Amino acid sequence: QVQLLQSAPGLVKPSQTLSVTCVISGDSVSSNSAAWNWIRQSPSRGLEWLGRTYYRSKWYNDYAVSMKGRMTINPDTSKNQFSLQLNSVTPEDTAVYYCARSGNGGVLVVWGQGTLVTVSS
Amino acid sequence: QSVLTQSPSASGTPGQRVTISCSGGISNIGTKTVNWYQQLPGTAPKLLIYTNNQRPSGVPDRFSGSKSGTSASLVISGLQSDDEADYYCATWDDRLNGPVFGGGTKLTVL
Questions:
Q1: What part of B 35-54 touches A (C-beta under 8 Å)?
Q2: In chain B, at which residue ranges do the beta strands (DSSP E only) sit?
Q3: From the CA atom positions of chain B, what is the Rg in Å?
Q4: Strand, helix or coil at A92?
Q5: Chain A to chain B, count of Cβ pairs less than 8 Å apart?
C-alpha cells in the first residue's frame, strides 16, 4: 500500500524559497509506471496542479505553465522521496501543498496529508 | 478561476439521490476521461471515481459517475451524513498539458 508522508508546515518570507518534501513508502520514486505530482489548494485558487516528476529510462519533469521558471521538482532515489522548491514566493503562494502519485492516465490515486505553507513577513 | 465548472453547492436529505455536475471543453472533458475526488473537512482529497465511472476498491456503489460530451456527473444515491464533503471533478487538459480541476461542490446533508 503506497503512502506519502509530507514535511511539516512552515512559514516563509516573501521573496524567499518554499520547500516541501514527500517521502514515499510502498513504491519507488524510480517506478516506471508512476508519476509523482505536486498540487496546491488555496481558497482563492482552488486545487491547482503544479508539476510532476517521473522516470522512464531517464528522468522527466513537467511543470504547469504558471510555475515554469520558478519551480523545481527533485527526485531523491537514495531517500525514496521527491521535493518541491518554489522560488521568489509572494503571499499568493500561501496554500496547502499536496504530493500525489499518479499512474498511467494521470489519475491522482494516492495523496499525501498536505503541508500548509504560509508566506508572510 | 477553475478550468472546469461546478456548482458551488448542493444539498439533500438522508436517503436522497444527489447529482453533482461538471462542465468543461474540447481540450479537457471532451476528449479525456474524468475523475472525481471527495475531500472531507481537514483532509486531503481522496479518489472517488476514475475513468468516468470506475470505483476504486472500497468506494461504495452508492457513488457513480458518467460523462457525456464536455460534461460529467457524479451521482450519490442513498445519501448519508458521512457524505458531507467537497467534491471535485478533474481531468487532463491538452492545452495546459496537465491535470485540471473543477472549483468544487460543497455537499450538505440536511
A1: 35, 37, 43-47, 50-51
A2: 5-6, 9-12, 18-23, 34-39, 46-49, 63-68, 71-76, 85-93, 98-101, 105-109
A3: 13
A4: helix
A5: 55
Backbone φ/ψ region at A99: left (φ over 0), alpha (ψ -120 to 50), beta: beta
Q: What residue has cell string 470505483?
A: B55
Q: Do B96 and A65 touch (CB under 8 A)?
A: yes
List the end-to-end C-alpha distance of chain B, in Å, as a whole number: 29
pLDDT tens-place string over residues B49-78? 999 999 999 999 999 999 999 999 999 999
Residue A35 parent element (H or E): strand A35-42
Distance of CA B68 to the CA centre of its chain: 14
Which residue matches cell numbers 440536511?
B110
DSSP letter at B54 equals B
Mean pLDDT of chain A: 95
Q: Which of A15, A29, A7, A11 is nearest to A94 (CA)?
A: A11
Cβ-Cβ contacts under 8 Å for B63 (sequence gap 6 or more): B36, B48, B49, B55, B74, B75, B76
Strands A81-86 and A18-25, sheet pairing: antiparallel
Q: What is the spatial distance between Cα A5 and Cα A81, in angstroms, rounded to a whole number?
A: 9
pLDDT digits (tens, 9 = 90+) for A56-115: 999 999 999 888 789 999 999 999 999 999 999 999 999 999 999 998 778 999 999 999
**Which residues does chain A have within 8 Å of residue B51's beta carbon, measured at their own beta carbons?**
105, 107
